[in-house]
Write a structure and sequence with these properties.
The chain is α/β, with parallel strands linked by helices.
């Protein structure tokens, strides 16, 4: 008994000691005052930001004080001390004195103070009427890369920005800066018509964004293309007048980015002479500003023309350097050829997931069908890979983004641009602590990582998707239960709405996929079971089964209700346009995920259309034969094989040049087609295609059997069996048409067959009409 009591006492002492250590490690800043030791307006603005962000989260009313605070209060000292050995004014030192207590933020320049304030806010443990800072938050740091920015184009194509007022823009720019971003880029002209959502004209908002950047000390960039023929003298002159108006109405302009293509289709000869004229206009209003050129869409001699021009003309007085964007020449080669006095800026697309620069690798087609091109995108590990692969060749980045859906990615890029060795999970904990919940930051960081894992591998076998949705639902319910002490005192938090939306949408898609695949299997079985009773009876039975998807199980309906509710909340809180019809999204692929909640994830539409065609056939034997073919489409019989070539879960015979579970940049990836705005009635397999698989390998073949290789797709195909070009027996080139190639018996004598494909020279064709492959069969003849 005495031993048990002694053990209990010892444990209590250990716990009390640990609590005391933990308490000593946290500096209470509840009664803090801010002391300014700089008169720079950017430092004064940093103090304002600190006061407002602390009040929004805790209700504490910090003030700027000329003198030391009263007894018991803490001091937050903001100062600027330029250092001769530093090249970056963005650096800062944050020190903590627990005895005073005091926190001192000393910037290498005025902007460095703002970044120091961001560090303090990201590391603070906050709750209502309380804020504590760990002593481990003290640091002295300078960013690795001088350019860390994000494009926030005020245009119709954006899925949220075009509904913002200047207050929302300032808040978001502030939040990006608090994570280390020092540059903001707007799109003042291009992008189609003005949005019906806009509260300011594009010119007025461009001016206001320039003013905000000046207030925060951030660099202001503008992306201004020439989507017209530069040989047209009248349009060229008019565009220069437009440039003059833009620059004249902006208090701050640091850089102008001109894309050589996308949009635009001009030879660099015209582009470069035009940019020299633009530079004259720009310098008239902003003498230190520079122009940057991307070679997007330039090929061969056009690229050579640019490098020759740089070497011969050397326009360093107005050209800042080159930009590497989607469709540009490779970054390493560009840097190797570019003179050292020119910068190379990365322009990464961090907001698209398909048909883009950095797509999700072998995304499950069900996600592509429902999530569109701009879903809530949380890809921290992949973004780290892209940034750290290319950053050493560049001065930094300004990312391409058309909305708030990639907000986590922006935070990751901003922090890695500061320090590419920064721990990824620490970045996510900072994000969760600052934006979501300080007390839950560690588990929320794991939940963010889990969202990225949701998109890996076949969806139907990814059992963690349901667990992730449950975790986000639990967090949302706990958030509600914490009111009124915490959550309800705060303004609506769109990030707390957006991230559960993604988790619920993932689970909704998975449950529907499993359910609807089961219905299709049952419908195919019903076709076969009723063929003896006639085609009409078989079709009726199959239709009845497929139509059960119109009344889905309760779990699907519950998730759908949650998703719709969050879509409405996001529209109200941040203008996120998750529907074309309801919220005025620019297009379905611009994040309008609510419009695809009921789009079939099986082949229902295609089968129903085929049933109509079958009913129109004049001969019952032909109708029965076609129905049998439909029912056994993916089941060609014993000893035969089927692959849905673009589907990671249904392509067992596709051989990859590297492991499937890696994220190599630039690897061959399926194309996910969104015909008819994502409502195509084609077979699911025809909506996810490969230009050609690296290799198909079949084992365990019967050496004495005869085999036929069959393909569907579009356009041309040149398959080889063990290196020998195959001759077609039938050769359709329309979408979904059959190609068949008899396999000479010599290629299966060892029981193994490898199929490869010749590359096709189709560079002269638009990518949308180039040849592609959908499905492959190796059929053993009876």
């Amino acid at each position: 008994m005495h031993a048990r009591a002694a053990l209990f006492l010892a444990l209590m002492c250990v716990l009390l000691f640990a609590q005391r250590l933990a308490a000593e490690d946290l500096i209470s800043l509840g009664q803090a005052s801010i002391v300014l030791r700089s008169r720079d307006p950017i430092v004064a603005n940093a103090a304002r930001v600190l006061i407002e962000e602390v009040k929004n989260r805790t209700g504490l009313n910090w003030q700027v004080s000329a003198a030391a605070p009263s007894a018991g209060g803490a001091r937050i000292i903001l100062a600027v001390l330029p250092r001769a050995d530093e090249t970056s004014g963005d650096g800062f030192r944050l020190s903590v004195d627990a005895k005073v207590p005091a926190v001192e933020i000393v910037g290498n320049g005025p902007r460095g103070v703002l970044f120091g304030v961001g560090h303090l806010l990201r590391k603070s443990q906050w709750r209502w009427h309380s804020l504590e800072l760990p002593r481990t938050a003290q640091t002295e740091t300078v960013p690795k890369y001088p350019l860390r920015g994000h494009q926030l184009g005020y245009r119709h194509r954006a899925n949220s920005y075009d509904k913002w007022d200047e207050r929302q823009y300032e808040q978001y720019i502030r939040e990006l800066a608090l994570f280390g971003a020092n540059s903001i880029e707007n799109i003042p002209t291009e992008g189609g018509r003005a949005s019906d959502h806009m509260v300011l004209s594009r010119q007025a908002m461009n001016t206001r964004l320039s003013q905000i950047c000046a207030q925060y000390g951030l660099d202001f960039w503008m992306w201004i293309p020439a989507p017209f023929d530069l040989k047209d003298a009248d349009r060229r002159a008019a565009s220069l007048v437009e440039h003059d108006t833009i620059y004249r109405t902006c208090p701050r302009v640091d850089h102008v980015f001109f894309p050589g293509g996308d949009p635009g289709n001009n030879h660099p000869r015209e582009v470069l002479s035009y940019l020299a004229e633009v530079a004259e206009v720009l310098k008239k209003h902003h003498p230190d500003a520079k122009i940057w050129l991307s070679m997007q869409g330039f090929h061969g001699q056009e690229v050579e023309y640019v490098f020759d021009w740089l070497e011969n003309d050397d326009p360093r007085d107005w050209l800042g350097g080159l930009v590497a964007g989607p469709g540009s020449p490779p970054i390493p080669q560009t840097r190797a050829r570019l003179a050292g006095h020119y910068g190379l800026r990365h322009y990464p697309d961090i907001n698209h997931v398909v048909r883009c620069q950095y797509p999700v690798s072998y995304w499950d087609p069900a996600y592509a069908r429902t999530h569109t091109r701009e879903p809530v995108t949380v890809r921290p590990r992949f973004q780290q890979l892209v940034h750290n692969t290319y950053a050493p060749y560049t001065i930094g980045f300004v990312t391409y983004s058309d909305g708030i859906h990639d907000d986590v990615n922006k935070a990751v890029w901003s922090q890695l641009g500061w320090d590419p060795d920064r721990d990824l999970r620490e970045i996510l904990e900072d994000y969760a602590r600052f934006f979501l919940s300080a007390k839950d930051a560690p588990r929320l960081a794991d939940m963010l990582l889990a969202l990225e894992r949701n998109w890996e591998g076949p969806l139907d076998t990814n059992g963690s998707v349901a667990a992730v949705a449950s975790l986000w639902h639990t967090f949302a319910e706990e958030d509600k239960a914490s009111a009124p002490s915490d959550a309800d005192r705060l303004a609506p938090n769109w990030r707390r709405q957006m991230l559960p939306l993604r988790a619920y949408l993932d689970e909704h898609t998975r449950i529907r996929l499993i359910y609807e695949n089961q219905l299709e299997a049952q419908a195919n079985a019903a076709l076969l079971a009723n063929l003896k009773s006639g085609s009409e009876v078989a079709i009726t039975a199959a239709r009845r089964i497929l139509q059960q998807a119109d009344s889905p199980p309760g779990r699907i309906r519950t998730l759908r209700e949650r998703i719709l509710r969050l879509g409405e909340q996001l529209w109200q809180s941040v203008g996120f346009q998750t529907s074309v019809k309801k919220y005025g999204a620019a297009a379905g692929h611009r994040g309008a995920v609510l419009d695809y909640l009921e789009v079939p994830l099986n082949n229902r539409w295609w089968l129903e259309d085929e049933f109509e065609r079958v009913s129109g056939l004049p001969d019952e034997s032909a109708r029965v034969a076609r129905l049998r073919a439909l029912a056994t489409w993916e089941d060609p019989g014993s000893g035969s094989f089927y692959d849905d070539l673009g589907h990671i879960g249904r392509s067992p015979h596709v051989i990859f040049p590297e492991a499937r579970n890696t994220h190599p940049i630039g690897r061959p990836n399926p194309t996910y087609w969104a015909w008819q705005g994502g409502f195509s009635r084609l077979r699911q397999a025809w909506l996810v295609t490969l230009e050609r698989p690296y290799k198909l390998r079949y084992e365990g073949l019967d050496p004495s059997a005869s085999y036929t290789f069959r393909l569907t797709g579009f356009g041309e195909a040149k398959p080889r069996a063990d290196g020998t070009l195959l001759d077609p027996k039938s050769y359709g080139t329309d979408e979904g048409a059959i190609k068949e190639f008899p396999i000479p018996n010599v290629h299966v004598r060892d029981g193994v067959l490898e199929i490869t494909f010749d590359a096709l020279n189709e560079r002269h064709l638009n990518w949308r009409v180039r040849s592609r492959l959908s499905e492959a069969w190796l059929i053993r003849k009876p």
